[in-house]
Amino acid sequence: METEKSGFYEKTKRLIDIIFSLLLIILFSPLILAVSVFIKLDSKGPILADTPKRVGKNGKLFKMYKFRSMVQNAHRLLRRNPAFSELFHEYKKGSYKLKDDPRITKVGRFIRKHSLDEVPQFFNILKGEMSLVGPRAYYPDELEEQQKQYPHTRGAVDVVLSVKPGLTGYWQVSGRSEINFDKRIEMDAHYVKKRSIIYDLWIILKTPWAMISGKGAL
Asked: What are the φ/ψ torsions at residue 100 (nearest 5 degrees)?
């Protein structure tokens, strides 16, 4: 169910991804260093999040780089530790989002609010696994469970998986990051069908304000 675009669009989008990601890596290098230091000082564990792979274009799995904003092994704790069983139930019920997550560290709360935990994804973009603008990159179990809960979204999921996931996207900059999976995947599919260079640039220009205000926090 791929929504095809012209070769010009795809090549231009890739060129924009390479140029922007290189420039942003250079621009954000002091911030990358500072956040890395604060994460190590704040809690035990690696600098980057130790989470499972995400689903990319055409269902291909890839390791998405993010600064660690939670305690070590947070993903495993939530799913396998009996002490977190109620929290995991709430997590699935809330479309794989938690408003008050006890696993988040002090530094993590700040970097998540302003989407600074997403900065390492510039390297995913440079590698060609992601794009600056695109749908959200979902966990495999998240997609499986959410499609069981919202079976009518399967067509939208196919559309979304026909393109690379993005660092930012339509629903993030719209300030609607708290919506349920069915609405979120519909917005992602809407972006895929409507995407163009102008539309991508519009989303890119809106992203800094979404980060500063915290309204685009994932």
From this structure: -120, 95
**What ranges do the domains of the chain cover?**
7-213
How many helices (H) and strands (E) the chain has is answered by 11, 4
Q: Can you say whether residue 123 is alpha, beta or left, with left for phi > 0 and alpha for psi between -120 and 50 degrees? A: alpha
Q: Which residue has the tokens 């006890």?
A: 102
Distance CA(74)–CA(108), nearest Å, equals 12
Contact yes or no for 48/68 (Cβ under 8 A): yes
Mind listing the pLDDT tens digit for each residue in 66-98?
A: 999 999 988 888 888 887 888 887 777 776 777
Q: Which two tokens stand for residue 134?
A: 């695109």
Q: How many Å apart are CA 173 and CA 207, to the nearest integer?
A: 6
Burial 120-159 (b: 16+ CB within 10 A, else e): bbbebbbeebbbbbbbbbbbeebbeebbeebeebeebbeb
